[in-house]
Design goal:
Elements: H1 25-30, E1 37-41, H2 45-56, E2 60-64, H3 75-87, E3 91-93, E4 98-104, E5 107-112, E6 115-119, E7 121-124, H4 137-140
Parallel strand pairs: 1-2, 1-7, 2-3
Antiparallel strand pairs: 4-5, 5-6
């Protein structure tokens, strides 16, 4: 089984982004414009890859990380990456949450626990929600977690040994 069905836009956990024209990772990848200023909400591998790519293309980039970079994957690598990004001119704001986001006259204003950040584009890279509801996984005996993501082992096997799952 190959599950590559993901929602194009994850629903925000609250209404702060409901009417805000933010970028998803997909929208950032297909953009034909390089913003002068880019704020990235998220600290995952994809978030930091895109942050660095836009910085190398000329954007002034600020990453807002709820914790630290790669805090789940490898905190030591995250700490090193934060130092490298600082040397490259990328601002990493750790332990930062946006309590309010507005978009007026082409500018985003993010109110955070560390002050105000203004930017031309806002990239929200906090993860995707799996779109597995139509796959009838229960009938196949394939286990999922609370978010309906397929649970796999190191070999990408599901709870059914003859069914494999892959996705991004």
């Amino acid at each position: 089984m190959f599950d590559r069905q993901w929602r194009q836009r994850s629903d925000p956990a609250d209404s702060r982004l409901k009417d805000i024209p933010y970028w998803t990772t997909t929208e950032a990848l297909v953009s034909d414009a390089i913003p002068e200023r880019l704020a990235v909400i998220g600290s995952s591998v994809v978030a930091v890859e895109l942050a660095q790519a836009f910085a190398q293309l000329g954007s002034r980039v600020t990453i807002l990380a709820r914790n630290s970079l790669f805090f789940r994957e490898d905190p030591a690598i995250g700490a090193t990456l934060t130092k490298v990004f600082s040397a490259e001119g990328i601002e990493v704001m750790e332990h930062t949450l946006a309590s309010q986001v507005t978009h007026t006259n082409g500018e985003f204003v993010l109110i955070t626990n560390h002050g105000e950040t203004r930017t031309d584009k806002l990239l929200v890279a906090t993860g995707r929600s799996p779109n597995t509801r139509t796959l009838v996984l229960d009938a196949a005996g394939v286990a999922t977690n609370e978010q309906r993501a397929i649970i796999i082992d190191q070999g990408m096997r599901t709870s059914r040994p003859h069914i494999y799952a892959a996705g991004d």
